Amino acid sequence: MIVIDLPELPIAKGRPRFGKGRVWTPKRTSAFEKSLGWQAKTAMKGKPPLQGPLMVSMDAHFPIPKSWSKRDRAAALIGTIRPKSRPDLDNCFKCLDALNNIVWLDDAQIVDAEIHKFYSVKPLLHIEVTEL
C-alpha cells in the first residue's frame, strides 16, 4: 500500500482556460498538483509506477469554519457534521492526475475508489493506493 499525505487545503481541479490560441491550467491547480506530485515521489521511495489494477481511497480534510459554535466544532471533529459545500468530490478526485507516471502509469488503472470529505483541525489530503 502506498500512503500519501499532503498537508494542504484540498482543492478541486480548475477548468482549463482558453485564450490567444493556447490552453493552460489555472496556477492554483498547477501548484497543488505539483505539491501532490512531490509528496507522491517521496511516498514511492524510488519505486517504479504501479502497473496493475488499483484501489484508491482519498480523504479530504477541510478546516472547520471559525464562526461555528463549540458544539458544532466538536460535532465536526467526530464526524457527525461533514462538509457538504464546495469543492465537489469528483473535482477533488481529478487532481489525482498529478500521480500519473509517479504512483501509477495512468489513472485508468483505478478500478475501485472511495472518496470522503471530513472536517479537521488542519487541512489534509490523505490518499491510500492498494494494488488489487
Radius of gyration over all CA atoms, rounded: 16 Å
How would you name the CATH homologous superfamily?
Holliday junction resolvase RusA
The main β sheet shows up as: 4 strands, mixed
Please identify, by name, the CATH architecture. Answer: 2-Layer Sandwich
Low-confidence stretches: none
Q: Which percent range fits the helix content? A: 25-40%
Structural class: alpha+beta
User: How many DSSP E strands?
Assistant: 6
Mean pLDDT rating: 93
Kindly report how far apart the N and C termini lie.
10 Å
Strand adjacency order, main sheet: 1-6-4-5
Q: Tell me the name of the CATH class.
A: Alpha Beta
Number of domains: 1
* Strand/helix succession: EEEHEHHEE
Distinct helical segment count: 3
Approximately how much beta-strand content do the residues carry? 25-35%
Shape: globular
CATH level-3 fold name: 60s Ribosomal Protein L30, Chain: A
Notable traits:
four-stranded mixed β-sheet, 132 residues, two-stranded antiparallel sheet, 60s Ribosomal Protein L30, Chain: A, alpha+beta, single chain
Task: Describe it.
With 132 residues, the protein is of the alpha+beta class. It has one domain: Holliday junction resolvase RusA (60s Ribosomal Protein L30, Chain: A), CATH 3.30.1330. The protein is built from 3 helices and 6 strands, in the order E-E-E-H-E-H-H-E-E. It has helices at residues 27-44, 70-78, 89-94; strands at 2-6, 17-19, 22-24, 54-63, 110-120, 124-131. The strands form 2 sheets. A 4-stranded mixed β-sheet has the order 1-6-4-5. Strand 2 (17-19) and strand 3 (22-24) form a beta hairpin. The termini are close together. 21% of the residues are buried.
